[in-house]
């Protein structure tokens, strides 16, 4: 059976370093906000190229903390896309604001800047583009539109695109706030939940740091309403080990993606992912569009090859957002991608014989 995401191979590679890192945390006993958290924040800020990184408990928490720091709440609108994991819109609604959806591009499957401006109203307080499957949205165009409309805040949801670049600048350093996830299956993932926030804005950084510890500025002094959004020290220690090999793993992912690209070159039966000319991708997933995803899924399964249909029900059609009064057909590109999308095995450690087996199976089924 081909692994869909091979975390074991990575763990086998760096197990000695992981064991030492965990033992160090157990020795000093600072399990919450220990020294590894600060070290990770410094390294990640340098990696992204921003002044501040704030480690938090999850990618979901990072979105919530970002909006809390910006003062978003009841009566506000926040624009995002309907083709993403539910956290993006869920946190908008949870904070009391209204999610406003904009359809995605036909080829990158990220927010379509050409459709963004029409969604902006006097109630709009922020825009949350999502870097789906490993590449960023067109952040340059989105930032320009945000600036045109009163310097609207832009929160980049980079849960899947951390490590990617846009015009040579790294994801999470492209807007007001960058937000990412370290869920285990992410290209840079820990062994539990974790996330981080990035910004060059000193005031926002201070607010986000306070919000993640119950709004506390100093012991027993809480000027802000906050939450328990801290990153565990053990997870930070694990991420430090993984960060050492992250760039190499990204190149390996890109190599796997190139192998897939060769299979789909010239065919009109399957739409392969397109990486924008201004972008690089970390290929959190390698996703294709096929008119019969269920059939292809079964054909691959018969050969021991797993595949996954992500976001098959887009957010505007989820029951929890029925109050927004959307209907089928409102976001046609999202609905097409949601109904035809199929993600193939993707890992830096996908073996050559597994890649060849997948390529052979795909060549005979598409």
Description of the molecule:
The chain is of the alpha/beta class and 366 residues long. It folds into 2 domains: 7-101 and 109-243, Aspartate Aminotransferase, domain 2, CATH 3.40.640; 246-365, Aspartate Aminotransferase, domain 1. It has 11 helices and 12 strands. The chain has helices spanning 7-28, 35-48, 59-69, 87-94, 139-148, 202-211, 233-243, 246-264, 293-302, 332-340, 352-365; strands at 52-56, 77-80, 98-101, 124-127, 153-157, 165-166, 169-170, 177-181, 195-199, 279-280, 286-289, 341-344. The strands form 3 sheets. It has a 7-stranded mixed sheet with strand order 1-9-8-5-4-2-3, with helices on both faces. Helix 4 links the parallel strand 2 (77-80) and strand 3. The radius of gyration is 20 Å and the shape is globular. The model has no long low-confidence stretch (mean pLDDT 97).
């Amino acid at each position: 059976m081909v692994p869909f995401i091979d975390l074991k191979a990575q763990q086998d590679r760096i197990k000695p370093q992981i064991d030492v890192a965990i033992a160090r945390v157990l020795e000093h006993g600072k399990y919450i906000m220990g020294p590894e958290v600060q070290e990770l924040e410094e390294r990640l800020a340098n990696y992204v190229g921003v002044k501040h990184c704030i480690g938090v408990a999850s990618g979901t928490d990072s979105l919530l903390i970002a909006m809390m720091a910006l003062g978003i709440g009841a009566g506000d609108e926040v624009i995002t896309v309907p083709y993403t994991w539910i956290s993006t819109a869920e946190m908008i609604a949870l904070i009391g604001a209204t999610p406003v959806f904009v359809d995605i591009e036909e080829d990158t499957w990220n927010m379509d800047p050409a459709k963004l401006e029409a969604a902006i109203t006097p109630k709009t307080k922020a825009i949350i583009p999502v870097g789906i499957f490993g590449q960023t949205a067109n952040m340059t165009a989105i930032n320009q539109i945000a600036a045109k409309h009163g310097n609207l805040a832009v929160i980049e949801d980079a849960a899947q695109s951390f490590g990617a670049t846009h015009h040579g600048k790294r994801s999470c350093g492209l807007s007001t706030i960058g937000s990412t996830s370290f869920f285990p299956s992410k290209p840079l993932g820990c062994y539990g939940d974790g996330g981080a926030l990035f910004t060059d804005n000193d005031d926002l950084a201070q607010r986000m740091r306070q919000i993640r510890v119950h709004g506390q500025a100093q012991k027993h002094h809480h000027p802000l309403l906050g939450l328990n959004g801290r990153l565990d020290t053990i997870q930070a220690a694990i991420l430090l080990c993984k960060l050492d090999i992250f760039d190499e793993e990204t190149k390996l992912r890109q190599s796997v993606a190139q192998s897939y690209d060769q299979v789909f070159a010239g065919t009109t039966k399957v739409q392969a992912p397109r990486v924008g000319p201004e972008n690089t991708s970390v290929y959190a997933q390698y996703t294709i569009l096929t008119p019969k995803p269920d059939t292809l899924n079964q054909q691959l399964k018969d050969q021991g090859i797993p595949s996954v249909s992500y976001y098959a029900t887009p957010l505007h059609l989820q029951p929890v957002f029925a109050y927004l009064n959307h209907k089928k057909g409102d976001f046609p590109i999202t609905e097409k991608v949601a109904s035809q999308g199929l993600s193939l095995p993707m890992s830096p450690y996908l073996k050559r014989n597994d890649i060849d087996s997948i390529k052979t199976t795909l060549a005979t089924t598409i």
